[in-house]
Inverse folding.
């Protein structure tokens, strides 16, 4: 999740600063959801490759939630 955050299109240092402690404390699902929410809320573009990485992380964290 730390690599996804570092590579994310997020530009708000405040958001990034809020997400880092979640990762450090093992709250990867919450960190993912927060990152995803901000990307969506700010309507930030992502590449197909980044999208694939997001899907792969979800598949790892909660395989039952991934639909093919």
């Amino acid at each position: 999740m730390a690599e996804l955050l570092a590579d994310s299109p997020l530009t708000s240092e405040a958001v990034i600063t809020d997400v880092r402690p979640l990762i450090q404390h093992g709250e990867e699902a919450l960190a993912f959801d927060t990152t995803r929410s901000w990307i969506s809320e700010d309507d930030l573009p992502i590449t197909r490759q980044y999208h694939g990485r997001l899907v792969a992380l979800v598949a790892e964290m909660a395989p039952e939630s991934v639909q093919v």
In short: Residues 5 and 35 are 7 Å apart (CA to CA). The first helix runs from residue 2 to 7. Helices lie at 2-7, 13-24, 28-41, 48-61.
